[in-house]
Amino acid sequence: MTSVLFVRLSSMGDVVHGLGAIAALHCVRPDWPLSFVTQSTFAPLVEGIPGVKRVLTFDRRGGIAGLLRLRAAMRALHFDLALDLQGNWKSGLVAALSGARERIGMAAGWRQEPCSRILLHRTVECAAVPHPARAAFELVRTVAPDVTFLPPRLVATPGEVEFERAELARIGIVVDRPFTVVVRTDPRDPRALRPEIVNGITSASGGAVVHVFGPAERDLLESPGIAALRHESGQVRRLIALGALVTSAGGEVIGPDQGASHVLAAAGAPCRILFGATDPLRTAPPSAAALLHPQPPTCQPCGQRRCSHPQGVVCMQFAPRDGRRVDLGWPRG
Fold first, then answer.
1. Which pLDDT does position 303 carry in this prediction?
2. CB atoms < 10 A from the CB of 205, how many?
3. Are residues 167 and 316 both part of a single domain?
4. How does DSSP assign 272-332, residue by residue?
5. Of 143, 158, 299, 329, which sees the most CB atoms within 10 A?
């Protein structure tokens, strides 16, 4: 029996990307106790993942005292392996503090901060395009060569589904008929759907439409006449329940390359995700339809948090129906 710690501190979409590999490892090594460490905001996403016995939380504002508390909690579990899914100094440090007998992560070309590999015992090379889900799979395959790739799968509890059903009914959405969810995010972020594109999606839909806002969009105004669902801080599992309801109703999700879209995709909802600033080969959910601008600007992808293009975020100025679908080429074994 081998005890394994997975380290993925952030962000929401990337935490989700790593969960398929954990479930895949549990399939072939069901007797291995698995643990996961992440920021407390994202810890609820790991609840119910097959094989995960413990979810430990990293307090990014906790300073030295917070690190020492986490260190004590990890060392009490006596890990044999620590797999660094993230590839930066913080995740490498957490892996080192775990006291695991062996610490493994991806090689320099796959790491956000390449020099952080010095905190590990060994690294894994891969010729594919770097992607968080692929990184998790490659690391798991290193310790269990017979593992088969699985996309992440998030499952809501019956109580969570009923709560979200009631919230949708409150805003006039009947969930026994197909409806479209549009993920709204801060338009200052180049990844966000442009307001005019959101309006076009809403106008073109043949059924009910609901706009979903997260805690970061508290100040973002709702569109007049369009049903709006607001999820507050600490309610990330509501997205999983929403995804389940979209799926059962035969609806779909249209959103940007951001965490909420990734959670909804992992919950089983059919998703069309629009990519402009980011590269779908590096970030797209394995189960989603990744759509690119049919005539992207030369600066795409850029990966910046603020757009510097003289005409604004032109890479996101396209409707889903016009997007060019990208073959993501996921491994199956």
1. 82
2. 16
3. yes
4. EEEESSS-HHHH--TTSEEEE-SS--TT-S---SS---TT-SGGG-S-GGGPEE-------
5. 143
**Nearest one of 209, 199, 284, 289 to 246, comparing CA atoms:** 209
Q: What is the pLDDT of residues 241-250, one digit of tens each?
A: 999 999 999 9
Residues 107 and 184 in one domain: no
Q: For residue 244, which phi and psi values (nearest 5 degrees)?
A: -65, -40
- Write the CA distances from 32 to 43, 125, 234, integer angstroms: 20, 24, 30
In which residue ranges of the chain is pLDDT below 70?
331-333
**Residue 119, amino acid:** L
Residue type, 203: S
- Distance between CA 209 and CA 227 in Å, rounded? 7
pLDDT digits (tens, 9 = 90+) for 56-107: 999 989 999 999 999 999 999 999 999 999 999 999 999 999 999 999 999 9
Give the CA radius of gyration of the chain.
20
In the chain, the DSSP E strands lie at: 4-7, 34-39, 52-58, 81-84, 102-106, 122-124, 179-184, 208-213, 227-230, 252-256, 271-275, 289-292, 324-325
Distance CA 50, CA 322 (A): 38
pLDDT score, position 332? 45
According to the model, what pLDDT value does residue 178 have?
96
Domain membership of residue 333 (yes or no) is no
CB 174 within 8 A of CB 294: no
Determine, yes or no, domain membership for 332.
no
Using DSSP bridges, classify how beta strands 324-325 and 289-292 pair: parallel, antiparallel or unpaired: antiparallel
- Cis peptide bond prior to 205, omega within 30° of 0: no
Residue 74: name the closest of 40, 46, 99 by CA: 99
Q: Which among 244, 242, 213, 246 has a CA at the least distance from the CA of 227? A: 213
Listed residues 143, 177, 197: the one ending a domain: 143
Give pLDDT tens digits for 249-259: 999 999 999 99
Q: Please give the single-letter amino acid code of residue 246.
A: V
pLDDT number for residue 331:
56
| 326, burial (CB in 10 Å: exposed 0-12, middle 13-18, buried 19+) | middle
CA distance linking residue 37 with residue 15, whole number of Å? 10
